[in-house]
């Protein structure tokens, strides 16, 4: 993580004399290291702030849970090449775990959540978090109230409209691609009908209980 922007600039000056294949591989790796290093500095700064404010107990940093979760974060920065969207969510996830407000250091859930999180792409994350935002808005409840006996299912087209607005992904096809992946990971509720016109409406609208819990953990908390 010690790679600096100056290293990148020095590397770029040598591109002309490099083999193209070697350059492509080296450049991608170096850029990954630069971004990972910047993300790590941001994370450490936030952890320091939380510890100074007493939001993270000093002895937590040496706990087994912290070491397990921190290892997942470091491996993600080194291997997964997260972008700004995924890094911010991952940072929030680690800080919420470390603050022990939503769990304790004895719980096994945090390490499972962070492993699930690592498997998500930025597109999946956008759809998941937007589904959480739609649940929090609560407008779906008024629609459900008018459905009578069908209150256990929800209109998929209305959810799609919300996702296009909240995610900024613009194309329904992109929503569907990420929706399918989230369904397989049991983070979104499944369709009621084969044509995809309605999905099972849970307590958390489109989110499963697991999907909701993960979103709670990656939600940014205000520091008092």
Task: Tell me what you see in this structure.
63% of the residues lie in helices and 3% in strands. The protein has helices at 5-12, 20-52, 64-80, 84-99, 109-118, 122-137, 139-145, 156-167, 172-184, 209-218; strands at residues 153-155, 198-200. The protein has ten helices and two strands. The two termini are 31 Å apart. The protein has a two-stranded antiparallel ribbon. The protein is mostly helical. Helix 1 (5-12) packs antiparallel against helix 2. It has two domains: 5-118, no CATH class; 122-218, Arc Repressor Mutant, subunit A. It is elongated and about 50 Å long. The longest helix has 33 residues, at 20-52.
Topology (elements, then pairings):
Elements lengths: L4 H8 L7 H33 L11 H17 L3 H16 L9 H10 L3 H16 L1 H7 L7 E3 H12 L4 H13 L13 E3 L8 H10 L6
Antiparallel strand pairs: 1-2
Helix pairs in contact: 1-2, 2-4, 3-4, 3-5, 4-5, 6-8, 6-9
């Amino acid at each position: 993580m010690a790679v600096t922007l100056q290293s990148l600039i020095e590397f770029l000056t040598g591109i002309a004399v490099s083999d193209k294949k070697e350059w492509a591989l080296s450049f991608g790796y170096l850029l990954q290291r630069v971004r990972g290093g910047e993300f790590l500095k941001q994370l450490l700064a936030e952890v320091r702030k939380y510890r100074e404010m007493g939001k993270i107990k000093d002895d937590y940093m040496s706990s087994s849970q912290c070491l397990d979760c921190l290892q997942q974060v470091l491996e993600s920065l080194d291997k997964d090449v997260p972008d700004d969207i995924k890094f911010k969510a991952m940072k929030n996830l680690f800080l919420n775990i470390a603050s022990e407000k939503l769990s304790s250091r004895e719980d096994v859930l945090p390490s499972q959540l962070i492993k699930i999180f690592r498997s998500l792409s930025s597109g999946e994350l956008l759809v998941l978090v937007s589904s959480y935002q739609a649940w929090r808005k609560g407008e779906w409840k008024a629609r459900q109230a008018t459905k009578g006996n069908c209150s256990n299912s929800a209109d998929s087209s209305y959810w799609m409209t919300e996702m296009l607005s909240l995610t900024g992904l613009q194309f329904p096809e992109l929503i569907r691609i990420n929706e399918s992946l989230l369904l397989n990971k049991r983070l979104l509720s499944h369709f009621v009908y084969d044509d995809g016109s309605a999905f099972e409406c849970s307590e958390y609208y489109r989110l499963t209980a697991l999907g909701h819990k993960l979103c709670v953990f990656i939600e940014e908390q205000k520091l008092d």
